[in-house]
Amino acid sequence: MKTSFITGVTGQDGAYLARLLLEHGHRVIGGVRRSASSGLWRLEELGIASHERLSLVNFDLLDPGGAVRLLAGHRPHEVYNLAAQSFVGASFTEPMLTLQTAGAGTLQLLENIRAIDPAIRFYQASSSEMFGLARTSPQDEDTPFCPRTPYGTAKVYAHWMAVNYRETYGLFACSGILYNHESPLRGREFVTRKITDAVARIRLGKLDCLHLGNLDARRDWGYAPEYVDAMVRMMSADKPGTYVLATGRTASIRDFATMAFRAVEVEIQFRGSGVDEIAVDARTGRTLIRVDPALYRPAEVERLVGNPAHARAQLGWEPVVPLEAICVEMVEADLRRNSAGVSL
Ligand code: G4F
C-alpha cells in the first residue's frame, strides 16, 4: 500500500486530494497545524475525516524538526506540499510569514527528503501568481516569471528549488503551476466563495449588500477536484516535470458575480465606475454590490490565463467543468450551509 503525505490537508486542495488518494487505495498522512484556523470541516463535508486510512498528524512547516520526524517516522512514498499562507491579499501584510511558509518551508521539505530518502516523490504547489505581470498570454511552462506580490515571489523561489533539486540531486520533484481553481470548499477569503456565500446570505435575508474590491480583474478559473487529479497524474508519470494547469479561458469578477446572482434567479446590472460602481437588482433597483477601495490590493495582477496543452499532451488531463456549473454548485452549497446556520 502506498503512503502519501499531504501538507495542508485541511485546505481545499488538501481535502480533495486526500479523498482521491484514499479512493486510489493509498494510506494518507495529513499534516495539520495545531493552530489551523480552518479546522476539519472540509474533510468532514467530504465524509473522510474518520477514514481508517487517513491519519492526521500535527505538522508545522515552520518547525525545523517537524519534517524530519514525519518523514523518518512514517516513511511516505510521496509528499504533496500544499501548505502555505495562500491568500495573496494577506501576503502584503504578512510578507515574512508568506516567505517562510511558501518559500523556506518548501526548501526544508526538499532538503529533508534528500537526506532521509531521495526516492520519495515530491509535488510542489506552484501558482499562476508567479507569472504576475506576464509579458505574453496565455502563459505556459516557458513563460518568464514576473511576480507582483510577496506571495508570487515566495512561490517563484519554491518552484525553482523544486526544479533545482530535480536537476541537481535527481529528486522526483514535480511542480504544478495552478491557475485559480474553485469549489464549494474554497475559503471565504477568496473572491469566488466570498461572492457565493454573500449571494446565499442576501437570498436568505441575512445580508444587505456585498462589498468587493477590483471588479475588473480577470482570472482563469477551473474546478478544484479536476486540478488535484492532475497532481496525482504528475506524481504517477515516468518522469518528474513542470505543468501549467488552467482552462485557457478568463472571466472578470463582475462576470462571476453576475453568474452567482443568476443562480438565485436575480439579474444584476452594473452602474457607475471606479469606487462609485454599484450593481443593482434589475427588477427592484436594490443595490446588491458596492466597491470598497479598502479591498483593493497595493499591487494587482489584472489578468492571468494559462495554456494547459503540455498537461493535456503528457498527462491526458483536460479541464471539463465550466465556470457556470462551478458557480452554481458553490451557491447551492452556501445556500444549504447558511440555511442550516453555519457557513465556514
Ligand atoms: O480570489 P482571489 O483572492 O485569488 P488570487 O489572488 O487570484 O489567488 C488565488 O489563486 C492563485 C492562483 O491559483 C493562488 F496561487 C492563490 O493562492 C489563490 O488561491 O482574488 C482574485 C481577484 C484578485 O484580482 C482580487 O483583487 O479578485 C479580486 N478581488 C476583488 N474583490 C477580490 C475582492 N479578492 C478577494 N479575495 N476579495 C475581494 O473582496
Describe this structure in words.
By secondary structure, the protein is an alpha/beta fold. 37% of the residues lie in helices and 18% in strands. It contains ten helices and 15 strands. The chain has helices spanning 12-23, 41-45, 66-74, 95-116, 150-169, 191-203, 224-236, 253-262, 309-315, 323-339; strands at residues 3-7, 27-32, 54-58, 78-81, 121-127, 173-178, 181-182, 210-212, 218-219, 222-223, 242-245, 251-252, 268-271, 278-281, 287-291. The strands form four sheets. Strands 3-2-1-4-5-6-11 form a seven-stranded parallel β-sheet, with helices on both faces. A four-stranded mixed β-sheet has the order 8-15-14-13, with helices on one face. The radius of gyration is 20 Å and the shape is globular. The mean pLDDT is 96. The structure holds ligand G4F.
Characterize the largest beta sheet: strand count, sense, and whether it forms a barrel: 7 strands, parallel
Stretches where pLDDT is under 50 for at least 5 consecutive residues are none
Secondary-structure element order, as H and E? EHEHEHEHEHEEHEEEHEEHEEEHH
How many strands appear in the DSSP assignment?
A: 15
Bound molecules: ligand G4F
Overall structural class, as computed from helix and strand content, comes to alpha/beta
Helix content: 25-40%
Q: How much of the residues is beta strand, in percent? A: 15-25%
Cα radius of gyration in angstroms: 20 Å
Q: Provide the spatial order of strands within the biggest beta sheet.
A: 3-2-1-4-5-6-11
Q: Kindly, what is the distance between the CA atoms of the first and last residues, rounded to a whole number of angstroms?
A: 34 Å
Mean pLDDT: 96
The number of helical elements comes to 10
- The shape, in one word, is globular
